[in-house]
Design goal:
four-stranded antiparallel sheet; Porin; mainly beta; eight-stranded antiparallel β-barrel; 62% strand; 201 residues; elongated; 9% helix
Amino acid sequence: MKNTTIATALSLIALASPFANAYQKGDIIVRAGVASVQPNDSVTGTLKTLNGAVKSNTQLGLTASYMLSDKVGIELLAATPFKHDITSNGNKIGSTKQLPPTLSLQYYPMDAKSALQPYVGLGVNYTAFFEEKSTLGDLKLDNSWGVSAQLGADYAISEHVVLNAAMWYIDIDTKAKLGSANIGTVSVDPWVYMVGVGYKF
């Protein structure tokens, strides 16, 4: 019953707009909005002893998708640099900035009559850490490669403009050093949420 109710609600939303939102091979969809990185972090080594944690941050998110076919697209996720406070037992002991470009292969299941276009994606992420600071000394975080999974939806409000909501789970692991000493590994593994608008070219 619950799944039937959800399906019915999505159908009504799709029918509410007079604009079909079918994507076609060669289309480019650029999206911008508010993006929030919310770590699901765990730590090892000295960082675990310190009860270390990484705080959330919100910035401008940008994505650009190119449709390889009517149903399949490739998307690049970018953003202005995220700045995360690093804490020990709830007290700030440092900070870092990071950029998490993510390349995803996407699938769009809906047909040409639907204003609502959900999609799923699977991809690869590269996270670059920089401007690391700590009250404990010279902090260094290694850059990270990892996989990502995505769920999102576009809703047409005109022939070219869409409303967008998307979320990603990203595998981000980094080794931390204080001076020359290894102090543990941080599995950031964030959920990333973005809400904004898009334009179809």
